Amino acid sequence: MGRQYVGIDFHRRRSVVVRMSATGEKLSTVRIADDPVALAAAVAAAGPEPEVVIEATYGWYWVVDLLQANGARVHLANPQGLNWGQRRVKNDELDAIAMAHSYTTRVASLRDLIEVYDGEVGMLEGQIHRQLRHHRGYRAIHAINGVGPTIAAILVADIGDVARFRSAEALCSWAGLTPKHRESDTIVRRGRITKQGSKLVRWAVIEAVSRYHGGPKLAGDFRRIAERRGTNKARVAVARKVLTLVYYGLRDGEIRCLARAEAA
Fold first, then answer.
1. Homologous superfamily (CATH) for 5-109
2. Full-prediction pTM beyond 0.70?
3. In a 3-state reduction of DSSP, which class is residue 193?
């Protein structure tokens, strides 16, 4: 049946609990005494991790703690936002139904917005691809695991003419992905990355390694560094390696080490 939604009209001595489906169909209405066992049982009927809406009225604290401890996602409803005073008929069941609807309506609205945004993103991605499809570097860096059309477009646009960087290390330094270097007499200390330069490029390459860890060629490096120094440091280190590959892809129109690996 999918996730269910629960509206609770809570009072000091008794409450009304209404269960509804994601489509807004009322599944049940129960009236209970304000007993923790009875309340937990009424909400448990909605299955695992239900969405529960309760009016932010006097004494709601223990109810929220109880329901959250039992796995429910609890949301407080502002009584003023429910327009109690403007309804011609008002009773506890209708109040509980209204609270459950206030959340299902919100979810439906958010889903509609996501569909609109997905459509806009898809349209813009198509435009970007059409404008950059003849760019040799843009096509080349698609060979890097985790670098799709959007990440590739960000890198091409923000880096610009890669020839202005004398080396891949210079590009990594510009993006703020190189560690701080402190040297005094015979003591050399290398610290965290500088985080100076292009925040957008730095975000793009770190985002690119978040899921695939750089692909088969770099995933071993990620695991080795993660075991020694943690996943955050591994992510940054592999992002620096990915940006190095990006440098050669933009400069040469191909990434030879990846092409050799595919050929093998």
1. YqgF/RNase H-like domain (3.30.420.140)
2. no
3. strand
